[in-house]
Amino acid sequence: MKWKQQLDGMQAYKPGKPIEEVQREFGLQEVVKLASNENPFGCSPKVTAYLQDNAVNHAIYPDGYAQNLRTAVANYLGVKETQLLFGNGSDDIITILTRALLYPGVNTIMADPSFSQYWHNADIEGAEVRKIPCINGAHDLNAMAAAIDDKTSIVWVCSPNNPTGVVIADNDLRAFLAKVPSDVLVVLDEAYIEYVTHPEHKNTLPLIEEYPNVLLMRTFSKAYGLASFRVGYAIGQPEVIAKLDPVRAPFNNTILSQTVAAIALSDQDYLQACCEANEKGKKQYVEFCEKHNLTYYPSDTNFIFLNTNADSDIVFHELMKRGFIIRSGNALGTPGFIRVTIGTEAQNEALLGHLETVLKEQG
Ligand code: PMP
Description:
Radius of gyration: 20 Å
CATH architecture of the largest domain: 3-Layer(aba) Sandwich
Helix content: 25-40%
Strand content: 5-15%
Number of helices: 13
Shape: globular
Bound molecules: 4'-deoxy-4'-aminopyridoxal-5'-phosphate
CATH topology of the largest domain: Aspartate Aminotransferase, domain 2
């Protein structure tokens, strides 16, 4: 068959190990997954109540334009409805962007380490990938700007960055954007924005007015606790959105996902409570790292990226045997590090107890 040459030897995305697989493999009843930065408290109780009380006709196609959700998000953010593009998770937005803007002969720039889907999708499209190493978990924005040339099509800026957790301060971001040519799209991936508490991080929405080549990308998968429903969205200038919309698959959000995302958005009190609990949970990890002299990056997310000073694949495996799934830095190209999603207070305490034992064993 006439496969795209780029697919030669390409592997599918490997998400964190599924809970059921670990239960089977290690004969464990209870397994906690702190590997994919989901909300450990789940979604708003208003969503749960809706799901229990309402039967939905799944035989009909959903609204391809996600009108009700669009209106809810536009009102919440104070943007025009034409400034929004909805995706089947922000993964889908990434696919749409790469299909629309990347092809052999152009290049795309991203930090390293950062979210793997940027380069994975760029590879599929045959574009050149320019990975710019992070400095202490932060984007090296000067080097990223310097890497831009007339063949650059997309620059990916992940703030806060996955897997490091580091957010970009407003001044740094603006200084960077001022250097980017106006025909290069800057995608600001803000999957974890709800968790940000950094005092120098400001509202990023005005950036799309100041820099029409900026596209913000957000999701209901993280703080809103709706990962399984697959709803992500982009916010940009209407002209940018209008170019991307024809690339989108026709019915890329289900009826139920559109509805529950709008309900979750309406429950900002719950979101706030989750973010506050996350801050407390993060302190448990920070205290642990300080007690054990382990390097960690300042996280503005619901995960922490820390250096175990051990083989992170072994740490990953040992924690899994004890019923906790995390991410090994080896899989993310950062050996020694692990990425742990902040769980509930009890989950964090239990995991840190095990981590202490495992690290002692590793000497
Ligand atoms: N961007 C970043 C930075 C992420 O960490 C993730 C999920 N791991 C995504 C995008 C994709 O999220 P989703 O497709 O669930 O919206």
